[in-house]
Amino acid sequence: MRSASRAPRGFSLVEIMVALLIGMLLVAAILQLFIANKQTFRATEALSRLQENARFALEVMTGDIHKTGYTGCPSSSALTNLLQNNASVWWEDFGDGTIRGYDGNTAFPGQAFGTSVGARVAGTDAVILLQAGGDEYSVVSHAAGSAQMTLDRAPAFEAGSVILVCDAKRTSILQLTAVSGSTITFASSGSTPGNSGGLTHDYGQDAKVVGYQPTAYYVGVAASGASPRSLYRYRLDVAGASANPVAEELIDEVNDLQLHYGIDANGDNLVDLAYLDATGVTDWTEVVSIRLSLLFRSAEENVTTRSQRVIFPTRDTGLANDSGSWLTAASSDRGRYWPAFSTATIRNRLP
């Protein structure tokens, strides 16, 4: 007896629809996982970049703060500034005020407030730091009144370079007009801004020569549209026997800079008062340390799911975490913020 044969069958419509639904659910789950992982990667990458920028900014700024007022010789050495117009140009005014701060509402002689690239952002602080730096050279010979000096080796200077010459008794700041081998010349003409006169002090073989490195920091309008603000640093540029300060964009994604100054008014090498903003400092020679507060914001948008709240000094009121206040980003702001803090001493003013 033969069994009845069955006609071949495929998937029913219901089975196909169920399979399609399961496939769609799997694709949706995979897509959601991909989007979540991508968002996590973007947020992590933005945070890593902010932290890297913060480390670099604090390292560079604290290094310059440590060296402020350094001449290569004892700080008790009397100063003679031979540069033309030395009291009216910020980078030439090397004296008791080797550090000068400017509050967010106070004009800074290096850069005006504005909206063009490089202009200072209103509400952010600025600071001038003046010091010597780089290689040091020993004086081999110099006669009082002479506009030439021989060093122990050929220096890394050129016509227009500004230098400091010092010994235990006197420090002189001047501009070179010529460099030939190990001999440097500093005539009263032939450079800009130039020298107002000649050296009257006789520097012997115990004297040192070192380059002059004035710097200033401020937050300015960024050159890149991706990051609206950057940290700028002024440095001295020498070209054609002329020395001029040049602002360079140092680090992007810097949203704010607030500075507070530690004061030692009684000379005991300790901060006497709470850290003050620039408007509270009456004598810049009494500043022995600076508290840096930098606020970074990612150039990348939409890396957070909601606006951030961060602890950061509110201008003119001291540290925000001392008073318990917070800064809150706008409700529509989805950028990542990262505050960074450091306190740096001015080593030349401490034992």
UniProtKB/TrEMBL annotation:
One BP term from GO: type IV pilus assembly
Transmembrane segments: 12-35
InterPro entries found in the cross-reference section: N_methyl_site, Pilin-like, PilW
Key words of the record: Membrane, Transmembrane, Transmembrane helix
Coiled coil stretches, renumbered: none
Organism: Thiorhodococcus mannitoliphagus
Name the record gives this protein: Prepilin-type N-terminal cleavage/methylation domain-containing protein
